[in-house]
């Protein structure tokens, strides 16, 4: 068959874009070459509905081993007893947990999307807000920190079945013990969605959610630096407390409910090529190199936050404990949308984001979110963060001046030449 130059030319253009720009989108990263190589393999041809050793298709002897490797390595990373590596994405991981634990109409309590939560934590535009009765907690206006008192009050009043913690745009660590305490009081389960900080948790640089949360979900492509995908985990298995029983009248174990929720609940055949790539990335996370990487992520985030604070940017909560920061641009007289558009013209990619108590819509927003997971993979260190803050500031202060933006773009392109990305790809 003739090579599809149309598609491969576009892929090359994307490689060039990733190489020449500064990637500050907090949910992105650059996988290793071997992670990508595992994805582009014959494993994509294999149907393997079911789980290792219990498949609905023949010929799964090899993919059983790659999937088992991914499971075993993931268990080792987080010191846990249960892992499901099949969810196609973070949203699928969360949907599976909901399907396993909840019935339609059940109450859930999550962080408001406009305060940093995720769509799958009960947003009205998402299945989680349509199928379940979703309620929300927020952050304290003055401090930008999770409003645990509000969470506790809501939990006591509403008695939700599931309390969801974790966020897409929250730069501080979580008090999982406090959430578990009120959950036990009201008979709720706790799900932590660690999609963003999972890599830092893996290296014990943040609080351990597994000590306190019944079920933990994550994506694999943010700080974990693996292929795009989702995972579901538990430190210890337990009997589902909500009374669903098997045909002998015994309460079902949560592990079997979660496995059934992923397949056949919401997915069909697993993406075994992606699962093999997950296994490769989990192997990398177990290495000392990755420990150094995770530590550098924290150092870079601290340095970048300080550089912005020095320029009088208002970081929500005043700083960061993890890899990201959310900046309220209202004192800089520029919307998140305009900031995003101006930055991208200079090949600095970041995303607009609502800030807590925002007076603009989700399409415009008053904030911008920056993360350092990707630039740390490129090899940047603390002293490179000043360059980034300087260039971002120059663009935001001159967002209507195309000459200035173009001159910053050239500086950005030149700067990025020293941080080589995928040299093997030519
Ligand atoms: C906290 C959180 N959960 C879940 C997801 C969903 O992940 P995916 O995009 O892989 O479905 C995201 C993605 O941004 C996220 O930030």
Automatic annotation (TrEMBL):
* InterPro entries reported in the protein's UniProt record: PyrdxlP-dep_Trfase, PyrdxlP-dep_Trfase_major, PyrdxlP-dep_Trfase_small, Ser_HO-MeTrfase, Ser_HO-MeTrfase-like, Ser_HO-MeTrfase_PLP_BS, SHMT-like_dom
UniProt GO cellular component terms: cytosol
Give the enzyme's main class according to its UniProt record, as a single word.
Answer: transferase
Q: Where are the transmembrane segments?
A: none
Q: Where does the UniProt annotation locate this protein?
A: Cytoplasm
Q: Which residues carry this modification: N6-(pyridoxal phosphate)lysine?
A: 222
Q: Where does (6S)-5,6,7,8-tetrahydrofolate bind?
A: 113, 117-119, 361-363
Q: What is its EC number?
A: 2.1.2.1
Q: Where does the record place the Serine hydroxymethyltransferase-like domain?
A: 2-390
- Under which pathway is this protein filed? One-carbon metabolism; tetrahydrofolate interconversion; Amino-acid biosynthesis; glycine biosynthesis; glycine from L-serine: step 1/1
Q: What are the record keywords, sorted? A: Amino-acid biosynthesis, Cytoplasm, Methyltransferase, One-carbon metabolism, Pyridoxal phosphate, Transferase
Q: Where is this site: Plays an important role in substrate specificity?
A: 221
Q: Which reaction does it catalyse?
A: (6R)-5,10-methylene-5,6,7,8-tetrahydrofolate + glycine + H2O = (6S)-5,6,7,8-tetrahydrofolate + L-serine
Q: Which GO terms describe its biological process?
A: glycine biosynthetic process from serine; methylation; tetrahydrofolate interconversion
Source domain of life: Bacteria
Q: Required cofactors, per record? A: pyridoxal 5'-phosphate
The record, for Pfam families, names:
SHMT
According to its UniProt entry, the function of this protein is described as:
Catalyzes the reversible interconversion of serine and glycine with tetrahydrofolate (THF) serving as the one-carbon carrier. This reaction serves as the major source of one-carbon groups required for the biosynthesis of purines, thymidylate, methionine, and other important biomolecules. Also exhibits THF-independent aldolase activity toward beta-hydroxyamino acids, producing glycine and aldehydes, via a retro-aldol mechanism.
Looking up HAMAP family in the UniProt record yields: SHMT
NCBIfam families noted in UniProt: PRK00011.1
Subunit structure, as described in the record:
Homodimer.
- Write down what this protein is called: Serine hydroxymethyltransferase
Source organism (scientific name): Arachidicoccus soli
């Amino acid at each position: 068959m003739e090579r599809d130059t149309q598609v491969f030319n576009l892929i090359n253009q994307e490689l060039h874009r990733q190489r020449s720009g500064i990637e500050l989108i907090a949910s992105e990263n650059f996988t290793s070459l071997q992670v990508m190589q595992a994805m582009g393999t014959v494993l994509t041809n294999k149907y393997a509905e079911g789980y290792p050793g219990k498949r609905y298709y023949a010929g799964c002897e090899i993919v059983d081993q790659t999937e088992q490797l991914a499971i075993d390595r993931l268990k080792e990373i987080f010191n846990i007893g249960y892992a499901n590596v099949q969810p196609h994405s973070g949203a699928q991981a969360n949907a599976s947990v909901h399907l396993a634990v909840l019935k339609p109409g059940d109450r859930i309590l999550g962080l408001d999307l406009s305060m940093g939560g995720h769509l799958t934590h009960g947003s009205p535009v998402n299945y989680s807000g349509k199928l379940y009765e979703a309620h929300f907690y927020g952050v304290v206006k003055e401090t930008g920190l999770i409003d645990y008192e509000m969470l506790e009050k809501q939990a006591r009043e509403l008695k939700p079945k599931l309390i969801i913690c974790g966020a897409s745009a929250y730069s501080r660590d979580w008090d999982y013990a406090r959430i578990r305490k009120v959950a036990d009081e009201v008979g709720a389960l706790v799900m932590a969605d660690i999609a963003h900080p999972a890599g830092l948790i893996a290296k014990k640089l943040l609080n351990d959610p597994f000590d306190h949360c019944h079920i933990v979900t994550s994506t694999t492509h943010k700080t974990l630096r693996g292929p795009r995908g989702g995972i579901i985990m538990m430190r210890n298995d337990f009997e589902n407390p909500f009374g669903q029983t098997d045909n002998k009248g015994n309460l079902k174990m949560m592990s079997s409910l979660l496995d059934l929720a992923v397949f056949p609940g919401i997915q069909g055949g697993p993406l075994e090529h992606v699962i093999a790539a997950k296994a490769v990335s989990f192997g990398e996370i177990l290495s000392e190199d990755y420990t150094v990487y995770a530590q550098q992520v924290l150092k870079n985030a601290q340095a970048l936050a300080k550089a912005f604070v020095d320029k009088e940017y208002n970081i929500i909560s005043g700083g960061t404990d993890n890899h990201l920061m959310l900046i309220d641009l209202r004192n800089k007289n520029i919307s998140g949308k305009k900031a995003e558009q101006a930055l991208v013209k200079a090949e600095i990619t970041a995303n607009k984001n609502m800030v807590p108590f925002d007076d603009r819509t989700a399409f415009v927003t008053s904030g911008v979110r920056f993360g350092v997971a990707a630039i740390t993979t490129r090899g940047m260190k603390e002293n490179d963060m000043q360059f980034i803050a300087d260039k971002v500031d120059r663009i935001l202060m001159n967002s209507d001046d195309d000459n200035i933006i173009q001159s910053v773009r050239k500086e950005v392109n030149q700067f990025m030449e020293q941080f080589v990305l995928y040299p093997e790809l030519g």
